[in-house]
Amino acid sequence: MKVLLAAINAKYIHSNLAVYSLKAYAEKFGYKAKIAEYTINQPLNELLGELFEQKPDVICFSCYLWNISYVKALLKELPKILPEVRLWLGGPEVSFNAKQMLAEYPQLEGIMCGEGEETFRELMEHFEQGRPELDKIRGIVFCRKTDGKIIETSPRQVMDLNAVPFVYENLDCFANKIVYYESSRGCPFSCSYCLSSIDKCLRFRDTKKVKEELQFLIDSEVPQVKFVDRTFNCRRDHAMEIWTYLMEHDRGITNFHFEIAADLLSEEELELIGKMRPGLIQLEIGIQSTNEDTIREIRRTMQFSRVKEVVKQIQERGNVHQHLDLIAGLPFENMASFKKSFCDVYALKPEQLQLGFLKVLKGSWMHEKAEDYGLLYQDMPPYEVLSTRWIAYGEIRRLKKIEEMVEVYYNSRQFEYTIELLEQEYSDAFTMYEAIAAYYEKENLDKINHSRLARYEILFAFIEKSQIRDIESYRQSLLLDLYMRENVKRRPCFVQEIQITKEEARRFYEKEAQEFHYLKGYEQYDRMQIRKMTHLEWIGGKLLLFDYQNRNKLTHQAAVYEITEDTGEV
Question: Whole-model pTM?
């Protein structure tokens, strides 16, 4: 019996922790399953061919917002090429409408609902031995062969998280991928837009076991480990013990990502975070809105005043990447209210500001309240909001365009100096990004894929047409931004003249290759090699040397030195 656990990920760098957990747990009991991972960017015919070559008896798909449409397309085609294959689904996207899915797709045999490890183990026993009968397996919905009736069994009780084996004993198949890790399941909060709030049984993996497993990942020099815990710091002693261990056993390579509630951080936790190596951890903080009526209505418990304090305190240390989230389309949030939320969060200057849009998920409280809120949303995944009682579709479209500009000109961190300068020309940041978005639309630039260099040239053209007086300051700041990130050889169109001569550059690099006054650690390279690895440029009346081998751990900006008789890093 060949059972295939199929994961269709959003990107190649992603992996699917769920299928690896199911496989590892089943193997504890002697049942063997195989994993196959794909991406939604692969052609359907390609996946069909690869699944056919596997010759499975059973295929179990892991279903999420980002892949459910793809899975549905496969369900229609697979029986044509594998007529005997048994098709099963699992995951959050099918757990709350399982009966509907089975009625709509008669190709399906069944669906695993909720937590899957023990359910899948029993299914494996059924597949291989014919027992237990399907109606004796808890946590499934299936179509009975004898009469075609759809049967829903009783829900499965949550399991001890320590019973789930560690899934990364072999890291060969995770090369160049993000490694996901789980130290807790469930969520203590009740946010109305989220499915995690449904699982109120919050469980933690034993910290001794966690530390052993994290040590393996550290020793293996995994680039990034992303914790999938919904609120990592909801239990202080758990968070403190793990963070302390990571700091004490850090080898300077692995980065760890956590979703946290910033207002829950204690002074002790903040002190610990402040001692960490730059880049050891990054924090994702869900704010969603600063409108108190909205926060109350969506059942969140967040004190924004405390969040501000925490974010600023962490920021002062300069060692942690902070990613703050907003959601447009929430109840009681109109355009003016969202603009305020945006400006409130933007003022904190996080490394990234994610402007997301409400997704009305099946099974969530938001889905139940859709009529009350006047929620109109897409019928197709990801069920994104179109309008509400408080915000019109046209306003959502405006926010989409603003979101893109924030991604390009803020979250990329490629325009830091120019954007900071440009902010002074506008009453607020929201208005600034709205103006840039309007320019893209007016010039028909919003439907084109632009190169990184083109984005600098477009921004300069926008500044020129905005009747800003001191254009030269922007020319210089854009040039600084460009060379802080890019060792480009083609000069942008807004600055054609070369202010440093070939002879001046030659003399500098000859001297530097002998003395290494600025470029410590380049001693093994000759003059020509050093010149290729760095860049020399007059900007704002200063001769600057850009060192691309030494970058900021958080911003990835090059180290830059002003060329004087004394060394000085900008």
Answer: 0.91
